[in-house]
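Structure ticket #2291
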Amino acid sequence: MHDPESLSAPVWRDELEHEYAALGERLEHLVPCLEWPLHLPLIDAINTLKKQRGAVIMAHSYQSPEIFHGVADITGDSLGLAQAAADCDAELIVLCGVHFMAETAKILAPHKTVLIPDPEAGCSLASSITAADVLALRARHPGVPVVSYANTSAAVKAESDAICTSANAVQVVEAMGSDTVIFLPDEYLGRHVASQTKVELVLWNGRCEVHEKFTAQQARHAREQFDAVLVAHPECPPEVLAEADFVGSTTAMGKWLEREKPARVALITECSMADNLRVQFPATEFIKPCNLCPHMQRITLPKIHEALRDMKHAVEVPPQVAVRARAALERMLAVGRRETV
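Resolution: structure written out below.
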């Protein structure tokens, strides 16, 4: 039985400031001081409750600092979190990210309970294409394999031959063994991939509503005004990528920063990622521009607490969809295994 007090609304205790002093120091420049007394009772209640539930909390790099650093046990990109869901010992996972990420975790860990704090946390890329759209593309291009970006629904994954991330898209496309590949749904990522391979890509017109807003003028301003190196995500428009010193996935950005240790950098991606990396790289000054993902911001400490407390918003994927989507994911993972041999 769970302690009834742990299931009630979080309350302030004077000891919290001492107990979480180290966390407060780490987040001093990221979380406004006026918000800290509001966050601490929730952080403490979530951390207590997840131990009682035997849960693991996973947070995407775009989650706000109080979630990313305050309650998450595992952090990373969407695929990394899904793989961690399959590999970890916990039978209960709280996925702090958007809905397609929770679906992917459930697909790779079908016998585990996966909760999402807000089921309305969506994604413009995932909603830009449907399974019916994929079938229509297959009909127009018979025999052409389909590679879908991880930022898609389970139903779209199920109609795909393989899944990819922004980090391994070129490798997955070339592993299809075809002169032509249908690449879905991000047009800008597709253009970036096309520039690095001889495979002809049939592109969809999906775009990330966060990354498509960036402009080349913003990038140039960050370089000229602040003497910053530019690091951009490949979901940005081509003219932005042309200005960048480095183009890479969420994970690749962190590795690049660790390797290059720039004095000043402009991360042309989602804002919360820059906030979270500030903690990891205190010697680097992070310059805007960045844009917040409105869907990621739907995940909050109160919603995480409620999901754990009430065991609500469990993600389910129909078995016939999950089996086929898992096959597409496994094909991508097989490419990765070949790359590392």
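Closing remark: The chain has three domains: 4-123+296-310, 126-208+318-340, 211-287.
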